[in-house]
Every structure is written in structure tokens, then in C-alpha cells.
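Run folding on both entries below.
>entry_1
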Amino acid sequence: MKPRAIVATGTDRSADRATDSIGADGSSDEDGDNTSSRARGNSGRKRAVAGKTSPAANGITWRLRLRRDRTLVLMTLPAIALLLIFNYIPLLGNIVAFQDYDVYDLGITGSPFVGFDNFTRIFEDYRFWDVLLNTLVIFLTQLILFFPIPIAIALLLNTIMSARVRAWVQAVIYLPHFFSWVLVVTVFQQMFGGAGLIAQWLREHGHEGFDLMTNASFFKFLVTAQAIWKDAGWGVIVFLAALAAVNTDLYEAAAVDGAGRWRRMWHVTLPALRPVIALLLVLRVGSALNLDFEQILLQRDQVGPGAAEILDTYIWWTGIKTGDFGYAAAAGIFKGLFSVAMVLGANKVAHMLGEQGVYSKK
């Protein structure tokens, strides 16, 4: 047994010497420098890799995204082409607003430049400002009388429990949206004209008839009524879609707290509609000068230009019909800049009221 003990003791001593030569970090003194140099090399390579842009860290590259979504891109190309052809490329034709444009002989390339002379003619034309004021009056009338009606109809339809009745009423009020303005004006002529059904019924019962279609002072209310009958159903769809996203638990919680129907509408329904109302109101204000050209043109001769002339019809009669395209183009640019200013102003008011509007506040 002694030789075995001696051997074991020698082994322990050699292990002790090996342990003494190993550092505290588990590496020998001989290998310490190599290990530290390898660690420095690895850390350097890590820093070099971290300095490069990693697709995994920042998302996939645009090439991979294009390859992944190539089907959707190909589907949108026709729409983009139509948008460029009919909306953006024609903007280059606004150069005629700064020319004495001759459409028949000289064209765009040969017509002489006159600077801002066409804009000066617009601002010096008193008739232009009268037409602009009349356009704004008709717009304000439609904004006050027409804009709240789709909201009210949507709130009423939202209270109907029967889905079948709600769908039937929605289809009936939405149907006139597909009618042309020629048909709409004809229907109103047959109802409220001098030889219309209402006037004939009044005469048959000993009363004096009337003709609202030729009443100049009533014209702004007439076109507003026509717009309500034709397009109110379209606005109802938008507001009903917003109401469908309201959580029904809010109505149940309000009912449990004792809120009646009006309280639930005021504190639950209307706050849910506020973002949509603000967005549509901003867009409507931005199109203040963009009234229905066909609707006004069809009834312009019945009431006279003094009551029915709007900016679009005025540009048509004084610019395009007489061949003064430079004047018409200058008026169109003024209309576009005015609309942009109205959108920015209305959107600023929406931000002040705490709504997002067309774009969010940064």
C-alpha cells in the first residue's frame, strides 16, 4: 500500500505545481497572452460587424420587399399611370396662365410670355369678385344645411334595431346618388316648377301657384335641397361605418350607470364620430370653390347669372368659351391656391380642437 501512497503523493504534488502555473481566470501564463489577444480580436470583429447596417436589425431591404410585394406593385401600376396621365402631367399646362396663349396658331411653345398680366386682369375684374362672393355664399349655405343631415340620418339609423329595416332605408336614401344631375334637375322641375305637380295642385284648389325653379332669391336653397336629396345617402354610409367600430360595451356600461338614450348618444356616439366629422369638415372646407359645375350650369339660364354664377361657370363663359385660355388658367391657379389655404386653415383649427384632421400634428 505504501508505493501506491507515494505515487498518489507525487501525483498530487505535480497537480499542485500545475495549479500554481494556472492563473485565476483558468488559463496558464503561457496561454494568457494568446487568449487575451484572441478576445481582443473577437471584440474588434464584433465592433466592425455592429458598424455595418444589418438587415435583420433594420428590417428587410427594399429589394427583398420589392420582390415580396411585386404582385401588389404590378396591380397598382395602372392606377399610378392613370393618375400621372390625367392629374399630374396636365399640371404642366398651367404655363399658359403666364402666356398670351393662342391655341390655334402658336400653341404653348410659340405663345409669348406676358408674366402676371392674366392674374392682374383677374384681380382688376370686379365681376370676378362678385362671382367669388356668390360661390362662397352658396358653399356656406350647403355647409350649414347639408353637412349635419347625413350625421343626423346615421344616428337615427343606428337606433333602429331591425337590420332589415335599416338596410332598406339606407338603400332608399342612397339610390339618388347614382342619378345624373340632369335627372335630378328634371325631377325638381316636375315637382317645384311653374307647371309642376305642387303648383298645379294649388291652382286646382283655388290658390296661386309658384315657380321655385326661376326664383333667384331662393336659388341657393334650391341647389342645397338638390344636393341633399342626391348625396346625403353617400355621407350616411361613411358615418355608419364609423359607428360600426364603436365598442358596444360602452353603451352597456353607460346604460348600467343610468344614462338614457340621449345621454348615450351625447357621451358615446358623438365622441366616436368626432374624428370622422373633423376630417370630412376639413375636406369640405377645402372644396369651398369646387361646387357642382353641371348642377349650376343646367339652371344658370333659368335664374340668371346674377344668382347662379359660380367660379367654375364664370371661368367657362369668360375664359374657355371665348378662347381666353390664359385668363381661365390664371383663375384656375387662383382657385387651387385658395383651396390649399382653406385646407391648411381648417386643419389648423382641427388641431386646436384636439382632432387629427387631414394630417397629424407633429
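>entry_2
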Amino acid sequence: MTTAPACLSHGRDTITPALRAAVDRLDHRSRHQAAYHFGWITVGGAPTSADAGKAVRPALALLSAEAVGAPPEVALPGAVAVELVHNFSLVHDDLMDGDEERRHRRTVWKLWGPSSAILTGDAMLALAQEVLLDTGLPTAAPAARLLARATRQLIHGQVQDLSFEQRSHVTVEECVDMAAGKTGALLSASAAIGAVLAGAPEATVDALALYGDQVGVAFQLVDDVLGIWGDPAVTGKSVHSDLRSRKKSLPVSHALNQDGPLSDELAAWLTTPGEPGEEELRRVAGLIEGAGGQDWALAEAARRIALAEDALRSITLDAGARDELLALGRFVVDREV
């Protein structure tokens, strides 16, 4: 059976020529910045082979077509489109979060300024819909509608995430709902868009979308754990990056909602002004771990993957593609912490 890393590598190799062709449609400045963000060129424009990310979403899109008996080429425009939307959100995320590095390289906003980052992200978002609608397939409009709805939900999740920064208390339920929008919505669309383009029955599309939604929440749970305890060599971000910005991520939210001195101390720290040092950040990470934030997040991620697997088993799918979808889901929660 194909391993998840091999599946991701195959998906990335499959979509890259079409993704490059799509990005070539952009104006020169946006094209240059997008190509740099994707890891294709250096700041000066020389070709490079920098880390382009895991490409989970395109892999899901291609597999969702195969799962319903269609060739993966049917899903190629959808795979390109979801990757463009994902990277639109990353370029904007880096600016909103003040992150100066992604995948061990300077971020677009840090190199070219906030305005350029906004415009480059917007260009990729518009291009995603154009790529879908240019296929001329009768299923292109439903696929574009699916992606537009997922993008709206993604943005809503980002709005919630920002609003949490201004609040002293956020419930775990609110945090999970935010993750379902911010991360789950696009993964849900990715897992369904190939089946939509292939004209699969509604019940099949819905089950694949549910699988993607659950994988998305699991992905965010693990990502939040990595944002606190992850190895920078693996994550590409500075150590304790989420804590440095006092982000109310899922492990933090869980820890805050526990009774006890650890939660009280964490709550007090979150409202304390000033730039925290490394020793302070290590202490706060220990508070969250002591209050059960890390253990809960990893256990909840595993529970979500089990729900995703149940969704896949509820419908008839190509056995090989289903196995690869199952492997991808498990890969999400097995990333190194």
C-alpha cells in the first residue's frame, strides 16, 4: 500500500506543472512573489527547490476523484484551485500573525511589505476560481461554489481567531468551531472537490466532505501542538511561535478552561504586556502541558481521525484510493511533536 508521504509527493509532482501554469497568468509582480512563496525561485528570481509544503489538499482532491472511479486528471483543476486558496490564506496569515519566516524562508510580507502580501494573496484567491471555471465542465460551477463556500468559512474562522485575541475567555467549543472553519472547511472541500468534478452522487460527496472536515480539525489540533512544542527544524517556525503571540490555540483554550492554579496562572500571563523571553515561554508551555492541554489536543485529534475513517467506510469507494485517504488522515496526527 502506498505510504502517506509517497502519496503527498505524487500529488505535489502531479499538480506542480498545472499550478505553475496557473501562476504564470498573474501580473509580473504578483507572479514573482507567488513563485517565491511556493519555493520555486529565490528572492532575486533564480530557480530553486525550496520546501513547497506538504500539499495535503491537492492530494485529497486527486484521491477523491479516484475514490469514485474517475481518473485523477478530472480533479486536477480542483487540486490546483484548493492549493491556490490554501496559499492565499498562508500569505495573509503570515502578515496577520507577524510571522517573519515560513518553511525556513522570509515571508512575502517581510520581503515586499504588507500591501504586496495582501495583493498577492488576493490574486491567488481570484485565480483559483478562474482555474475551475475555465475547465468548461458541467460540474465546474458546483465545484466553484463548493470552493467559494469553503473560502467564506475559512475567512469566518480567521475572523473568529482574531476576535479571540481581544477576549479574556474563549470556550473550547468556540475554539473547535474556529478550527472547523479556519482549517476544516478547505480540507473538507479538498476531499470532496474531485468527486464533485467527477459527477459523483450527493451522498458520496457529503461523506468525503465529512471525512475532510474531521481531518481538518485533527490537523489544526496537531498544528497547535506543534506551534507550542514543535521542533523548529520540522515546523519551519521559531520555537514557541504561538505562545510568543499569546495565541489562544486549542491546547491553550483547553488548559484555560480547567479549574486550578495552573489555569489561573496561564490566564494571568495571557493578559500580561511585554515581549516574553525564552525561559518565560518554556515555563508557560509547562503550564499548558500540566493543565492537560497537550494530552487533550492529541487525544481529540485521534478521535477526529476515527470519525473521518467512519465517514469513508459508510460509502462505497475504490479500495486503493480509500486506503490512501485513510493513510493521509493518520499521517496528520502522526506528525512529529
